[in-house]
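We close this part of the discussion by returning to an individual protein. The sequence in question and its structure tokens are set out directly beneath this paragraph:
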Amino acid sequence: MLVGNRFRQSLVTHTRLWYLINAKDQINGRLAAYIATVLQGKTKPIWHPKADVGDFVVVVNTKDIAFSGRKWDRKVYRHHTGYPGGLKETNAIALHQKDPTRVLWRAINGMLPKNNSRKIYMSRLFLFEGEDHPYAENIYAQLEAPASMPKKLDEYTKEEFENYPKLF
């Protein structure tokens, strides 16, 4: 019986799995770093820099992603057209309004290693701005996002306020 169990563990370890992540109220950079490690396969015990053992990641609700601080206004994305004077700049809120998946895509792309494997890793990433996606039958597990946003003061109930420990 132990051999069958080992075989099953080995099969799950060496198979490319599909994971689902909900990006609602997640900090953009922390979520991108977490997704980049899963895409590279660094969460697996068999990871090796020369072996491609990464998994597929489906991210839903990218329209509800969050930035810390005032980054929605101050974070600037730049690209160059290749022509003289062709430097184009846009801030995060404008890019998010144009395409809600693009802000997270750029963050994940920037956190992957700058080599020929980056395009392969990014081909295993699927971003959706809402809950609906066509890969429901492929999903192996739903991953917990790295950190949840703290509740705002108006989201607490009266009982939670009363049960909060008094400092003095």
Summary: The longest strand covers residues 18-22.
